[in-house]
Every structure is written in structure tokens, then in C-alpha cells.
Design brief:
9-stranded mixed beta sheet; single chain; about 30% strand; alpha+beta; 5 helices
Length: about 220
Amino acid sequence: MTFTPFIRLTPQGALLEGELVRLEPLERRHAGELAVAAAENRETYGYTQVPTPDGIDSYIDDKLAAAAAGRVVPYAQVSRATGRAVGTTGYCEPRCWRSDDRLDAVEIGFTWLAASAQGTGVNAEAKLLLLRHAFESWGVSRVDLKTDARNARSRAAIESVGARFEGVLRNWFPSSAPGENGRLRDSAIFSITAREWPERRVRLEERVAGFRARGTHGSTS
């Protein structure tokens, strides 16, 4: 396995447009709106890494530095209902096994949403846009998603987009839980493969359509 920088695929992430959310390449201009989003009720985040309002600038700088190195493709999640950035998401961990540098596998990660955007279908459509771009534009063979193994809410959200649980990797990633700075967490690993994608796409499109039909009101994200 070799590391294939994203910069070989695209110097900047492509704009991905949906009806509920628009994924814009993350820029410093998003800082103000993201700070507002991060200041909303944080009780649902639990084990999820979410920047504090006063840490947004350094959070964006870190993501842009990683993007310049070709290690991530970061996005701001912009609500189509409000026109405001309500969180972030993106690609990370690009992997390639072949000599032509074609991307074989990638992870969708660093996803968080303001409390007011949760349960509106924004997350479901953002995953649809990211998965579709990865499988149909880049031609990857698999997409990974992972979360703290203790994060039941995040695991349910990942499963709801059709990803299959593959197991728990112990001491796999730095913990984001309060009071656990410097400790490693166990990570629950999920994936969707290219073979599974056509069926998963239909199911996910139907799910997103349901959010649209009921005015983006729902009980899960």
C-alpha cells in the first residue's frame, strides 16, 4: 500500500451540490459561521472531535495545511436552507496499491454538525455526495468510515448510510473524549465497497428524498 496525495487528483476539492447541503472546499472565510455552529448545544458530540468556537481558526489552518500536503480534502457543510456553514466533513487517508497512482481507497472523516443541523438530512445527503464522488469520479474500490467504538450515536449514523461494520481496532486513534487527552481510543471501522455502492446509493437516495419530502424534519441525521 502506498500513499497517493489527493493533490494529484485535485488541487482543491470539487464543489458538491445537493438540495439540503452544499459541500464547499473549506476556506478561512467559513470561520465565522463555523464558530457560531460550534457554539450551539454541544451535548450530542460525546466522543466526536469538534473544535471550540475560539479554536476554529487553528482548526481550519490545520485542515488547510493537511490539504496542501495532499493528506485531506476538507469541506464546509453549508445548509441550503440557511446559506450558512453548519459543520465540516471531508476525505482523508488516501491509499493506492497500483503503479498508475489511481486511488483505491479513501476515508470519509472529521464530520461534525451544529446541533440545529442534526436530524435535518444534511448528514445523509453530505454522505451521499461524498460517496458518489469517491466511487463515480475517483473510481475507488472502498470507502472507510470510523468512530470511537463507544460512540453509539455515531455508529448508528454510519450504519444508516449503508456502511458495513467490520470490527474494532484497539488503540487505533487519539481519543476526543473529555478528560482523555493524550490517550488512544478503540475505533469501530465501517466500509462500503464499489460492488456494494449501486445498491447503497439507491437506499441512500431514498432516505435523502424522505427528508426532502417532509421538509427536512427527521429524528436521525
